[in-house]
Every structure is written in C-alpha cells, then in structure tokens.
Amino acid sequence: MIEREQDAPGSKGQFSRLLRDIAVAAKIVDRDVRKAGLVDLFGETGEINVQDEEQKKLDLLAHEEFVRALRRGGEVCLIGSEEHAEAIPLLFDDCQGKYVVLFDPLDGSSNIDVNVSIGTIFSIYRVPDDHVGRVTMESALQCGRKQVAAGYVVYGSSTILVYTTGNGVNGFTLDPSIGEFLLSHANIRTPNRGRIYSINEGNYNSWDDGLKRYIKWMQQEDPDDPDRPYTTRYIGSFVADFHRNLMKGGVYIYPSNTRDPNGKLRLMYEANPMAFIVEQAGGRAETGSGPILDVEPQALHDRTPVYIGSPSMVEDAIAFLSGERTA
Ligand SMILES: O=P(O)(O)OC[C@H]1O[C@](O)(COP(=O)(O)O)[C@@H](O)[C@@H]1O
Ligand SMILES: [Mg+2]
Ligand SMILES: [Mg+2]
Questions:
Q1: What is the interface pTM, i.e. ipTM, of the complex?
Q2: Ligand 3 centre from 324 Cα, in Å?
Q3: C or N terminus of the chain, fewer CB within 10 Å?
Q4: In the chain, what are the domain boundaries?
C-alpha cells in the first residue's frame, strides 16, 4: 500500500507498520459496516459521548477496533478519539520517534442506520522531541501544519483509503476478494473550480449575511458563467461529501452559526486531516478567518468553522464572508 518506504516519514518501517495497523482496523470496521443490520449493529449504545451526542453502536465498535490495532502495533504513544473524552496514552516510555494518532472512528454517524456512506478520518503527528519521556495530553495539541500524515476511509459503494504523507495524495480501493487495499487513484489533484456546493441549508437563517449572499450567488443564473447555477449535494457525512468534492471539484461548508459559534466539525480529527489532504491536492481549507492548518488547538475536541475544497470556490466564499464581494 505504501508505494515507496522512503516516502514515508521516519523510513525505519515504523510508518508502514502504523499505516498497516490503520488499514487492518479499517478492514474490520468495513466488514461490520457491511452487515450492520444483520448483527444488531444499528442503533445506540445508550451512552452520551463527550460531544453530547447519542453514541451509536458502530461509533463505539470502530473506536475500539482502532484503539486495539494501534495498541497492538506498538508505534503509537498517544491517541485521541472523538469517542473518548481524554487522550489515551498507549506507551509511557520509549516514545522517541513514535506517533500521536487522532481519529474520528466513524464519521457520518447519523447515516449509519440508513445505509448511506460513512467513514473514518485520521491525523498523525510525531511525539514532539521535548515531550519524549513525558508524553502528556498536551502532546496531542499540535497545529495542523505539524501533521506528518493524514487520511480517511470511505465505507461507500466501494471502500477507499485516501492519505497523504506530505508528498501528494493517493487513493487505495479495498479489493474484498483478496482483502487488500490496492492503488486506484494515484496523485489526486482537485479541480480549481467545480459546480458542487455542500452545506446544510436547514441552518440558513442562522448564517451571517456574507455567507447567505455567497449561497445566493451560486444559485443565480449568469449568461456569462455557464457553470452557474451550481448544484447542491449534501450527504451529511463529511468524509463522503469531502471525497466527492475532492474528485469532482466543489466546496464543503460547515460554518459558524448563531447556535454553534465555532461550527460543528472538530479541528483535530476532522478539519485538520482533511485540510492537509486538500492542500496536498491543490485545494484550500479555511476557517473564515485564516487557514485551518494554522489554528493553534486549545483542547482535543475543539470545533472550527470549515470552508474546504476547490481553491477558487473557497476563495469566493472568503471574499463574500469578508464583504469584499457582495455579488
Ligand atoms: O446534520 P448536520 O448538522 O448537517 O451535520 C452533519 C455533519 O456532522 C457529522 O456527522 C459529524 O461527524 P460525526 O458523525 O463523526 O459526529 C459530519 O460527518 C457531517 O458532515
Ligand atoms: Mg465526524
Ligand atoms: Mg464520528
């Protein structure tokens, strides 16, 4: 799956082993997602997670699978998960050159029970040199620019693993007949502009005026712009909306709104990894007041507004938000 080991951070096989562990967990989650309705994996656990959301059975199962795989692999000192309040230390000693992994074990939870594409998102850092020997929760709070790798898995019509180590973006499709992820999308580049926008318009009334004007602008006919009106696509699974827009061109927006001033998506294991991937594919990722990857995290479950996708479409959004453009 890793093309060339020398492309991998650390090149002593550690990263390949870590990615192998993530791939193994993804295959197990894929197996269970595909038969969720048969093995009583639909529905809730009865627990409310740290996000104050009802935890789905598959949220917990995926969380446990990834923790088990990362613990077994021995390459990771600390993990952070959407489904666990604190960061989880896996190793206390000998963290030299090891990794911190932050992940959203199951993204798109509201779609689990209705057979709509869902996914897993992961972000990988090194243990900071000055934290070796005393790894703490703070070792997970590094800004997105320091990621050494990031990726996601979509459990959709097929299962695809897409990741970057800072040398471009590649996609690997799971061949269930041999149980291997095989290279299917080499060197993914996202179009400069597409015709798709993804946003939950049900929140329209809680948006700021600049964003409302941007959405209206995209919906307008314009004889000089054959692309407009754009078309809207919103699955409600960030990982699936992001993947479609990455391949076809488009913009995904989860803005701040009067109810959620910091938006809904989580900085460390949703926004940062996708921002690293989209920038590596020639796209752009903003909070509305600067690049997502430059945000200094304060806590593991920080939230952030997200404007992500084709660079010229994100540029348009930022221009409307700032009032630089009104039409
Ligand atoms: O229902 P809303 O408010 O549009 O939110 C949908 C968004 O929330 C999420 O489901 C949040 O992620 P989780 O499912 O991992 O909690 C995103 O995948 C999705 O884009
Ligand atoms: Mg999520
Ligand atoms: Mg989730």
A1: 0.98
A2: 35
A3: C
A4: 2-185, 196-322
